[in-house]
Design goal:
The protein has two domains: 81 residues, 3-Layer(aba) Sandwich (Glutaredoxin); 126 residues, Glutathione S-transferase Yfyf (Class Pi), Chain A, domain 2. Helices cover 52% and strands 6% of the residues. The chain is built from nine helices and four strands, in the order βαβαββααααααα. The chain has a four-stranded mixed β-sheet, with helices on one face. The longest helix has 29 residues. The protein starts with a strand and ends in a 24-residue tail after the last helix.
Length: 241
């Protein structure tokens, strides 16, 4: 059965973490809001439903037959075993879920660099506050999170270069997307930090070279980063630590 992914059209955003897993696995899926005749209206109708028992609060969410699953980490926990991207044992699967939730926290902090006061306000209405928030993020939070994930890769008892176990999981794909997004949004900062995280860079390269990922990145299905998504390039927020 075809998976249906619901997310805002025109941006990678949080939906991209789910897309990467579906694309890597060669899964049959549709990006509902990008389908002619369906679009964003169908997504909003489902979110505003008054009779859907599993009504989602916000995208992304996934429909698999009658099952609706929302939130990135929850979706990937659900999809991982189905797509062959889950850790092999139960303890490792819970650890992988914790890693994905940590990525969720990191992505939320990325978002808050350009919207530190309110998502309902334009960036231009909170630029000064954004500069303060971005300074804290670049100088303290980027090394905090990347340092943690570097240590996770180094301490994997399998010595595989993966985040969990001996094979690629959805966590590896998500870490690839984090590096891609940070390079776009904070190029100066990342040029400074990247030499400190060789394991993460090696993982990024290995994910990028995976055949289905390479094909996806070269296709029109992979939307470009832009200033409507989570990872945004505002030069005034990018500093060299």
């Amino acid at each position: 059965m075809t998976y249906e992914l619901y997310y805002w059209d025109g941006i990678q955003g949080r939906g991209e973490f789910v897309r990467l897993a579906l694309e890597d696995a060669g899964a049959d899926y549709v990006d509902v809001t990008r389908v002619p005749g369906r679009g964003t209206g169908e997504m909003l109708k489902l979110m505003d439903s008054t009779d859907e028992a599993h009504v989602p609060f916000a995208p992304p969410f996934l429909r698999d037959g009658d099952q609706i699953v929302s939130h990135v980490a929850n979706i990937l926990l659900y999809l991982g075993p189905k797509l062959g991207l889950a850790a092999k044992d139960e303890a490792s699967r819970w650890f992988a879920n914790g890693l994905q939730l940590t990525i969720t926290d990191f992505v939320a902090e990325v978002h808050d660099t350009h919207h530190p006061i309110a998502t309902s306000k334009y960036y231009e209405e909170q630029k000064e506050e954004a500069k303060d928030r971005a300074f804290e993020f670049v100088t303290n939070r980027i090394p905090k999170f990347l340092g943690y994930f570097e240590r996770v890769l180094a301490q994997n008892p399998e010595g595989s270069g993966h985040a969990v176990g001996s094979d690629t999981t959805y966590v590896d794909l998500s870490l690839f997307q984090v590096i891609e997004g940070l390079r776009y949004a904070f190029p100066k900062a990342m040029r400074h930090y990247e030499p400190q995280y060789p394991a993460l860079l090696k993982l990024h390269g290995s994910v990028k070279a995976r055949p289905n990922i390479a094909a996806y990145l070269a296709s029109p299905r992979r939307l470009a980063f832009n200033e409507n998504g989570i990872f945004r390039r505002y030069p005034e927020l990018d500093i060299e630590p």
